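go over both lines:
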Amino acid sequence: MSRRISLTELFKVLANQKRLEILMLLMDGCLTATEVASKLDMNISTAYRYLLQMQDFGLLTIIKSKDGDRFDLSSPHILHMIEEATEILSISKQSAVLSGKFVIYYNSEGNLPQPQRILDVRGEVCPIPDLRTKKELELMQNGEILLVIVDYPISKERIPSYYKRLGFDVWLVDNGKEAKIYIKKP
């Protein structure tokens, strides 16, 4: 059972980077503490403690299954709140629309597509790269290509896999330090 909390307490819970990363993982569906720990490369007891804390604050629900307790977002409003906070932070960092020439990068499969927009989120941490990518794609037309440049390790993996699952065409060039993710809106 979740307890009643104040807005200040809620923001304290969300001020922890790992908790934000957990919420972003759960955006795709419910997970066990073991799955969360594995995906975020953290200790299982720490992951479980964070999950229980967020459940206690009413951010997560527990679903009993044969595989053990699975955690899920308790409301879509949680994601909307994080999206709105990200939007406030990104007002001054609008993505650039391409004009003129652009360097084409190569990989083992040949030329990469030429994007219509570039979203540079280097230096940003979860959930900002993921949510800004989502917002930018919502503004684009079908068939247009977005180039997302990201250096946050979890987002380098999460963004391509999330949009592939949704049926987008995705190309990834990862040099270790940063990744260039090309996403074609269907």
Notes: The chain has two domains: 7-74, 91-184. Residues 92-109 have pLDDT under 50 and may be disordered. Strands lie at 60-65, 68-73, 96-97, 106-107, 110-111, 117-120, 145-150, 169-174, 179-184. The radius of gyration is 18 Å.
